[in-house]
TrEMBL record:
Family: Belongs to the PhzF family.
GO molecular function annotations of the record: isomerase activity
GO CC entries: cytoplasm
Protein name (database record): Oxidoreductase
Coiled-coil features, chain-numbered ranges: none
Entry-linked PANTHER family: PHENAZINE BIOSYNTHESIS PROTEIN, PHENAZINE BIOSYNTHESIS-LIKE DOMAIN-CONTAINING PROTEIN
Pfam families for this protein: PhzC-PhzF
Record organism: Streptomyces alanosinicus
Amino acid sequence: MRIRIVDAFTDRPFAGNPAGVLLLDDAFPDDDRLQNVAMEVNHAETAFAHRLPEGGAADWALRWFTPVAEVAMCGHATLATAHVLHTTGAHPGPVRFATRSGVLIATPTADGSITLDFPTAPLTAVELPAGVAEALGAQPAAVFDTSPDVGDLLVELADEKTVRGLAPNLKSLGAYSARGIIATARADDASRGYDFVSRCFFPNVGIDEDPVTGSAHTALAPHWSARLGRTDLTGLQASRRTGLVRTGLRGARTLLTGRAVTVIEGELHA
């Protein structure tokens, strides 16, 4: 079985967010098998996909696993899977994925990027939970719950410098949401090519800091579109690897556009 490592939301190797991608010949094996492969790959997510019969609502079934758990939504591994399908010729053109988050569509564009069509996450303003500022190491200016779709707390901080300088207590952060914390701020200088920055910490699913998080941008897009007065924006996830996500708010749906690069291709023997 072929296995590929794809860097997503980047146009160069060793940046963006790496994902394992396995295109299966048949239906999904048992969950323990999938989880063990994801544990071995040991990236934020490993995607497993298999072709569905023609004539249905979707073309491929898709599931995502972190090294410790299956997740209900993942943007970068969806982008990585669409990239593999497109570049190998396994599925040219738009592809419809059947997932735990419904049917998600990935469309290759003329410039070589891929656009994902995801549900927009709900944002509910909440009071700052006691202990969050201490665990994060910064005082939020506003806090939002993204449940049930994403399951994070989204916290807006004072400025880009504060987001970049975070060194949170990861053990403590896990107590405040189902998955983790999205920290964000307006870009200091939009002429650099991005409108807002973010960092994402997900200790509850085995990811201390996710390099680039597509699913988080389904919440970041409505948040920053409301503040900046534009529906089309670009977010920089300011992890060590960094990555760019172009967002397009379309009401109940959010478009996430980025590039991907296959870095490793090999054979799974186990």
